[in-house]
Specification:
The chain is of the alpha/beta class and 322 residues long. The chain contains nine helices and 16 strands. It holds the Pfam family Glyco_tranf_2_4.
Amino acid sequence: MLLVRAIRRRRRLRPVADRTKRIRRSDILLFMTIRNEKIRLPYFLEYYRRMGIQHFLVVDNGSDDGGLEYLAEEPDVSVWSTHDSYKASRFGIDWINWLLYRYGAGHWCLTVDPDEFLIYPHHDSRPIKALTDWLDASTVKSFSAMLLDMYPKGQIAAQPYLEGGDPFQIASWFDPANYTIRKNGEYWNLWIQGGPRCRAFFRDNPEQGPALNKIPLVRWERSYVYVSSTHMLLPRSLNVVYDEDGGEKASGCLLHAKFLSTFETKSAEELERRQHYSDSQEYMAYHSGLQESQDFWCDESRRFEDWRQLENLGLISKGNWA
């Protein structure tokens, strides 16, 4: 039913720049939905091009900041536009499922938000194709990456983020612990919560905190479908990205650059639109917390160094990938 729904939703997407005929059989593809994220796009595209992404497939949901026009001029980007409800499209996942169905089959596909930056073991010396080649050789079809919230030291608005800048020059801190993990019995995926958003915005109701578990990188087949964001997929076997026999499977992190100087304006906009999960309760919590001028940094915060640091903390794993 989810796949049928996505196929039906294709009529809501208007192609603005369709360069999908340029996609080659071996290309690794990136999929995302955006709204008013132009300030992030130059660095985002540069980051993933360096990693080895060959084509970007983007749905723009009614941006009025010039982001759509910017993407339409990029030679390795195909972009579609829609003014339909983000909420009614299951928070954009119907649109992405359609593009994955139409263009992703047979490719390794990375699905992320514009403030999510994948890192994996050896990412500083090996392109993403080295990772996907190893996954292919290991007959592994999906790769997990925990969402790691990054934040500055001090007030978020104190250091202005400028277009094209590296967000992690500002948001360079993270929580090394303070995470809970459990298994979802219905879909078999892991459910991870915690980190700075839980302690700052959901300290009285941590079970209401955002999910940090993601499965963003998948060798796609037409029968696959994301169920809820990139938290879980069907078939369920794709969600078993962990080893239940005491070992560890390779995994990465998505460095989450949400908490920059742009955050307060963005959260106010999304609170007014009410297009996010649970009637935007998460953004209500953000808005309330920001009014209290809370600071994410604490004595336990760590400054990000590299993937090896995260491996030592148990937040990332090489598994059997030497």
